[in-house]
Write a structure and sequence with these properties.
Elements: E1 15-19, H1 26-32, E2 39-43, H2 47-50, H3 57-62, E3 66-69, E4 76-78, E5 91-94, E6 97-98, E7 103-104, H4 109-112, E8 118-121, H5 124-135, E9 140-143, H6 150-157, H7 159-168, E10 173-179, E11 195-200, H8 204-210, E12 211-212, H9 217-229, E13 234-241, H10 247-261, E14 269-274, E15 276-278, H11 279-288, E16 300-302, E17 305-307, H12 310-324, E18 333-335
Parallel strand pairs: 1-2, 1-3, 3-8, 5-9, 9-10, 10-11, 11-13, 13-14, 14-18
Antiparallel strand pairs: 4-5, 6-8, 7-12, 15-17, 16-17
């Protein structure tokens, strides 16, 4: 967007709010150095801005502000039952940031957070310490990019490189980095079997309709292929699958594009799951997006989780699994509801 006296629109991160407790952290200074023209405002606590009443998530997301804060309270969370553990008994996630620079219409963050602004917690050492405490009891499988996309923000934040150094010194820690980014953040990291890059892939039709601001399917596939070439374990996440017109045709085209660039048998694994979301999050999303086909779909509520009608969900997942089995072993295909004994022959 051009800079002129007649331009009344703020660019992303035009305003950066800094907690008093965050000023002394070296990361704060480093992050601020990337935004020399930003208006920097000191605040007492990030919730004074992030949790204000009457905010409009959608409007804020068009020109997000950044909040730098110190995370207190719970630092590591147990994995949600609607997320896949990939067979790991000790499955956790860490929230180093809250919110994402991408704007996917189906994202649960829209129902989880009151604000569209982005919060970055600068006290990673405290999260590292909590991870060490868990490691003293058992191995840890830790997802560090659930509530944001760390790879997309790596050029500014640099959090992945710090996690890579930390993981390298702890034998029983495995990290998953979930992303839709085409940033090759792994180029600055040492290839390691302990760091899994998990690329979420969708048909181009879904990307164009619902995954706003994200890279194209071709860009994501190319990035995933490069990560594999550099020696990182790569997971492909066909999750969430989104119901659209001609979904079979669109998902088949996506799989053809993937298999033309990636040797599927060389993948660590893949995940498959149709869209599902907490009933409470969906209720908020419907208020925010009254015209969104995804938010307003007549989902089936199963014990507090809203999802497609069972017949449709099974049809979509079965189709994907059977197609994937053409190019890779069944044991490397994970379904989000595998614990229920569901699999498709």
């Amino acid at each position: 967007m051009k800079n002129s006296k007649d331009d009344y629109y703020n660019a992303a991160f035009s305003h950066i709010y800094v907690e008093k407790a965050a000023w002394s952290h070296p990361r704060t200074k480093r992050i601020l150095s990337h935004f020399p023209k930003a208006n920097v405002v000191e605040i007492d606590h990030y919730k004074d801005v992030f949790c204000r009443k009457g905010q409009n998530y959608g409007l804020q997301h068009r020109a997000q502000n950044l909040i730098l804060a110190v995370k207190t309270g719970t630092l590591i969370y147990r994995g949600s039952p609607v997320c896949q553990s990939f067979g790991n008994a000790h499955f956790y996630y860490a929230s180093c940031m809250m919110n994402c620079i991408y704007d996917c219409e189906y994202c649960y963050l829209k129902g989880m957070y009151p604000s569209g602004n982005l919060v970055a917690f600068v006290n990673l050492e405290d999260i590292f310490s909590e991870t060490k405490r868990l490691l003293s009891h058992h191995p840890v499988y830790l997802c560090i990019s659930y509530d944001t996309d760390l790879s997309a923000l790596e050029p500014v934040m640099g959090y992945l490189s710090e996690w890579e150094k930390f993981a390298g010194t702890h034998e029983h820690l495995n990290l998953e980095i979930r992303t839709k980014s085409a940033n090759r953040s792994f180029e600055a990291l040492k290839p390691s079997s302990k760091i899994i890059y998990a690329f979420t892939l969708s048909p181009q039709a879904v990307i164009e309709a619902y995954e706003h601001k994200t890279p194209s399917l071709a860009q994501r596939i190319s990035c995933a292929a490069d990560a594999m070439e550099r020696g990182f374990p790569v997971r492909l996440c066909f999750d969430p699958m989104i119901y659209i017109k001609d979904w079979e045709k669109e998902y088949d085209a996506m799989l053809d594009a993937v298999s033309s660039k990636i040797r599927m048998e060389k993948l660590l694994d893949v995940s498959v799951g149709t869209f599902r979301i907490s009933q409470d999050y969906l209720k908020k999303m419907r208020k925010q997006a009254p015209h969104s086909p995804i938010a307003q779909f007549p989902y089936q509520n199963e014990t507090g989780v809203c999802q497609y009608p069972l017949r449709l969900s099974e049809q979509m997942e079965r189709h994907m699994v059977l197609r994937l089995k053409e190019n890779m072993p069944q044991e490397n295909i994970f379904l989000w509801k595998e614990e229920s004994g569901v699999f498709y022959e």
